[in-house]
């Protein structure tokens, strides 16, 4: 496969996954900001900005000294803002552009799902969003993302095109899960940061955002505790958005890609996957979840670079 | 119930006779058009629009600020050619493309047609499109035009004429294929009742033709596109996909040790045949335009060594230029010793003093074209032009006579077309696609373009033209329900 094609497929999947993750993140913070237990709704929204790394840009665009983020403005920033590369619309546009560039490597149904998503969402106005309600909109984004994955899964040949799509999905997803977990962890760790009820809501919201709430109940039959959440999202092999599950997929996909390129990426993925597959939560908690996650984010970054060097920009 | 608006007097309509009755071979189609209500057509057209848009069958228009993608309007009334008539067009197309291929070979080798005095030397060698780099290069099978698009029109006397030869990167074949798919989807009942010759074998014939172009066994074929901002990008992607070959951009290819390679996830892979949809000038920044970001440095050197095949060949532009066009019938006679089956439109060459005088005296009745123009730009349609436009063109012609040719204003044939006022006659042309490899292959069909504005003769998609499905109707049981 052409390196450029692989690159576009990989980024197509990453951008769609990112759009979905943003919708999930917003859904949670949006809901939390409406909670009576939330002492400070603005802080919830600010957290969305921090997790996504958009705080600075937001401040540049909307910041007035001392002002707290306004819910409507933040929502707009995450959904529509063209200057925010992480906004849902920016992601959908980038995904659509990448899909357009490799139209020939996609099945008609995959292309149509991506193109129709972009056509539909690009016509959305802030008024229409208000009208439909943010919750309906987030559901819509998640549905479109499911549709893309379903169309890919159901219609694409199991060849390298399919593999680079999946690779993009899981690298983006692992990165996102690690960021979200890290953020909640560092906030919960602050002394006196929240009441018990608020903490409960925080952790539940995170689980729901990652589609892992039911899984938590199934595995722990216990009230929601930070260390259990960490274990579930880092080490659980069957929760689809856990780091272990993502890395398992990545380590499985890379050796299936035809040819002998990307040895560095394969090695890093195997090492990282093994560390998660055979890891235990005790040492992670003892060494500090935050430090562990930062180290992980570093390693996933290096893995993404190795994928890039090995396949996507080959001479 | 729909009403078929009859053609104006003096025009040739593809479906209706002057009396308003249908021509015999399309009687079934005309009955169906009359029986079907406008509301159904409207619904079907909306459905087609949605399907085209969703599948991304769009083109971009140069100069459009947003680079916006538009749909080429698709008309739901097919244009029909009886099989017997098509057979004679095919014979004419084969003859013409053969002569043109011989001509290009000749002007880059022994110049026999020039020595014989059939075509003046300056018409060839002073032509901007003549590529000195091609002199003496021996191409596999001596072929230059592997894919040709010959634009045909029917005049009001019912006779066919060649309007233009496209020997560089003719486009539009994807619309031929997609329009057929769309028609079969919208109106399956029509195909049950008519023996319409299939066209969907085109991509596999194209691949065969491209393989034939290379001396290598089992050659690696790629489609080279300028990129997705090109107006015909959809088609490039479509053809690559239908053939199952890579769609590459210049940056995907590189030349090493005089061979061409593409960058893949498995490392470099050799490329044997490049079906390029990129103009000569952009192919190789080392040989042509140095500012081209679209080409492949060193490509020409590899090509000249015979290490890669480029289709169509470099330097074809000299043969489909409007200033060479008037000589094509002579080429047929010279190279093949045959009388041309397809006729040219009578053409005045403004570089000739007598012709120039005639043209300047008759501007209000003529069509004047730039010899290098394309896409319906740089053209004067005398009878439709304002006095200012004519005066302006007169100045331009006087300033550079060799840059212009003139032709009588043809009354292009019309075909019923679903427009606002109903099903009304609109002018059309036809571009069949001619593939030349081991032998010449022409799928029964082509791209029919239609000028959607009433009375307009400009069918180009960049100027408001649309397209139709083109049916070659087998003679047998053409109308089964008769």
Quick take:
By secondary structure, chain A is mostly helical. Chain A has helices at about 5-35, 40-50, 55-60, 70-80, 90-100, 110-120, 125-130, 135-155, 160-190, 195-210, 215-220, 225-235, 245-255, 265-275, 280-285, 290-310.
List the helices and strands and how they pair.
The complex is a heterodimer of chains A (315) and B (482).
Chain A: H1 3-34, H2 41-51, H3 55-62, H4 71-79, H5 88-101, H6 108-122, H7 126-132, H8 134-155, H9 160-188, H10 196-209, H11 213-220, H12 226-235, H13 243-256, H14 263-277, H15 281-287, H16 289-312
Helix pairs in contact in A: 1-2, 1-4, 1-5, 1-8, 1-9, 1-10, 5-6, 6-8, 9-10, 9-12, 9-13, 9-16, 13-14, 14-16
Chain B: H1 27-35, H2 38-54, E1 59-60, E2 69-70, E3 74-82, H3 83-107, H4 112-115, H5 121-125, E4 147-154, E5 160-166, H6 173-186, H7 188-193, H8 202-212, E6 221-224, H9 233-243, E7 246-248, E8 253-256, E9 259-264, E10 267-270, E11 273-276, H10 280-283, H11 299-304, E12 309-311, H12 317-320, H13 328-336, E13 343-344, E14 348-349, H14 353-361, E15 366-370, E16 379-381, H15 387-399, E17 404-408, E18 414-419, E19 422-431, E20 433-436, E21 440-442, E22 447-451, E23 465-473
Parallel strand pairs in B: 3-23, 5-13, 6-7, 6-11, 11-12
Antiparallel strand pairs in B: 1-2, 4-5, 4-20, 8-9, 9-10, 14-17, 15-16, 15-17, 18-19, 19-22, 20-21, 22-23
């Amino acid at each position: 496969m052409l390196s450029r094609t692989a690159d576009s497929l990989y980024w197509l999947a990453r951008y769609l996954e990112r759009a979905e993750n943003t919708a999930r993140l917003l859904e949670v913070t949006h809901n939390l900001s409406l909670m009576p237990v939330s002492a400070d709704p603005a802080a919830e929204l600010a957290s969305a900005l921090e997790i996504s790394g958009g705080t600075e840009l937001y401040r540049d665009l909307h910041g007035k000294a001392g002002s707290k983020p306004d819910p409507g403005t933040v929502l707009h920033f995450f959904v529509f803002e063209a200057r925010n590369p992480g906004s849902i619309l920016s992601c959908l546009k980038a995904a659509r552009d990448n899909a357009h560039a490799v139209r020939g490597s996609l099945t008609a149904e995959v292309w149509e799902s991506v193109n129709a998503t972009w056509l539909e969402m690009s016509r959305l106005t802030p008024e229409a969003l208000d009208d439909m309600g943010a919750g309906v909109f987030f559901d819509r984004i998640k549905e479109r993302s499911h549709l893309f994955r379903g169309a890919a899964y159901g219609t694409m040949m199991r060849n390298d095109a399919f593999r680079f799509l999946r690779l993009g999905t899981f690298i983006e997803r692992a990165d996102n899960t690690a960021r979200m977990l890290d953020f909640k962890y560092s906030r919960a760790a602050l002394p006196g940061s929240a009441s018990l009820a608020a903490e409960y809501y925080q952790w539940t919201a995170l689980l729901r955002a990652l589609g892992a709430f039911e899984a938590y109940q199934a595995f722990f039959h216990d009230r929601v505790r930070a260390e259990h959440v960490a274990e579930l999202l880092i080490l659980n092999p069957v929760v689809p958005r856990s780091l272990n599950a993502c890395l398992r997929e990545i380590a499985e996909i890379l050796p299936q890609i035809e040819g002998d390129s990307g040895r560095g990426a394969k090695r890093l993925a195997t090492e990282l996957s093994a560390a998660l597959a055979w890891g235990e939560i005790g040492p992670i908690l003892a060494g500090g979840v935050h430090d562990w996650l930062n180290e992980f984010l570093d390693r996933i970054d290096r893995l993404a670079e190795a994928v890039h060097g090995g396949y996507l920009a080959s001479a | 119930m729909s009403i078929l608006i009859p053609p104006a007097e003096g025009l040739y309509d593809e479906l209706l006779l002057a009396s308003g009755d249908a021509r015999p071979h399309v009687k079934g189609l005309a009955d169906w058009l009359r029986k079907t209500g406008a509301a159904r057509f409207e619904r079907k057209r909306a459905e087609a629009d949605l399907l085209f848009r969703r599948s991304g069958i769009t083109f971009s228009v140069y100069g459009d600020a947003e680079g916006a993608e538009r749909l080429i309007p698709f008309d739901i009334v097919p244009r029909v050619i009886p099989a017997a008539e098509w057979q004679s067009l095919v014979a004419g197309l084969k003859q013409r493309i053969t002569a043109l291929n011989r001509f290009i070979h000749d002007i880059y080798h022994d110049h026999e047609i020039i020595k014989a005095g059939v075509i003046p030397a300056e018409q060839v060698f002073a032509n901007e499109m003549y590529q000195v780099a091609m002199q003496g290069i021996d191409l596999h099978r001596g072929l230059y035009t592997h894919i040709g698009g010959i634009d045909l029109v029917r005049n009001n006397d019912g006779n066919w004429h060649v309007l233009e030869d496209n020997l560089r990167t003719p486009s539009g074949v994807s619309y031929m294929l997609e329009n057929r798919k769309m028609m079969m989807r919208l109106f399956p009942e029509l195909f049950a009742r008519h023996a319409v010759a299939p066209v969907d074998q085109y991509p596999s014939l194209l691949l065969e033709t491209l393989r034939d172009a290379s001396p290598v066994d089992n050659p690696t074929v790629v489609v080279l596109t300028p990129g997705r901002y090109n107006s015909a990008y959809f088609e490039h992607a479509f053809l690559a996909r239908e053939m199952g070959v890579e769609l590459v951009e210049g940056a995907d290819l590189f030349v090493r040790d005089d061979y061409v390679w593409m960058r893949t996830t498995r490392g470099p892979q050799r490329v044997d045949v490049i079906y390029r949809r990129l103009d000569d000038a952009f192919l190789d920044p080392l040989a042509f335009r140095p500012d081209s970001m679209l080409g492949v440095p060193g490509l020409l050197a590899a090509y000249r060594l015979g290490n890669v095949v480029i289709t169509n060949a470099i330097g074809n532009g000299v043969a489909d230029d409007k200033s060479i066009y008037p000589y094509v019938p002579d080429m047929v006679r010279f190279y093949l010793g045959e009388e041309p089956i397809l006729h040219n439109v009578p053409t005045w060459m403004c570089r000739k003093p007598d012709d120039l005088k005639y043209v300047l005296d008759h501007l209000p009745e003529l069509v004047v074209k730039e010899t290098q123009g394309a896409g319906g730009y740089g053209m004067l349609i005398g009878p439709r032009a304002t006095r200012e436009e004519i005066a302006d063109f007169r100045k331009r012609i006087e300033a550079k006579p060799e840059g212009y040719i003139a032709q009588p204003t043809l009354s292009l044939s019309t075909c019923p077309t679903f427009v606002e006022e109903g099903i009304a006659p609109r002018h059309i042309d036809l571009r069949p696609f001619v593939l030349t490899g081991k032998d010449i292959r022409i799928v029964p069909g082509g791209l029919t373009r239609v000028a959607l504005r009433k009375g307009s003769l400009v069918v180009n998609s960049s100027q408001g033209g649309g397209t139709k499905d083109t049916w070659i109707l087998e003679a047998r049981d053409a109308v089964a329900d008769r």
